[in-house]
Amino acid sequence: MTADETAPPAPAATPAAPDQAQRDARRIDAWSIAWMFLALVVWGWFAFLMLADYGPEFDGRARCRGPLVGPLSESPVCHSELRQWPALLGILALAVVTTVISAATMVYAKLLPRLARHDGPGARPQG
Questions:
Q1: What's the pLDDT tens digit per position in 94-106?
Q2: What is the per-residue DSSP string for 100-126?
Q3: In this model, does residue 43 exceed pLDDT 80?
Q4: Which of 5, 42, 115, 121 is deepest in the core (most CB within 10 A)?
Q5: Is the pTM of this model over 0.70?
């Protein structure tokens, strides 16, 4: 009896494995697109809060300037919790997290079909 005869047989490659990997890749790709849209919405919200004027209008223009557009006004009518730096940094952190998750799921969705090889998980390299 030789070593080849005592070894357990290698599992046969099933045609369902590549199909399952393709379905998983499409599902994860859809999730990556959803995460990307969410990241774009959060980045848009952050940009709006940083750049847009707000508050009551005075002579046809908003009285309070955005944090990046002009100096912060000390007027009580310009006090907005979302325009303060701690809240803005929290929204920035949320935008970065959603962007990283979007990129990670997109990379995984693109690599998953390549990882599911057609010769099966237990096949030995020819050589």
A1: 999 999 999 999 9
A2: HHHHHHHHHHHHHHHHS-TT-TTPPPP
A3: yes
A4: 42
A5: yes
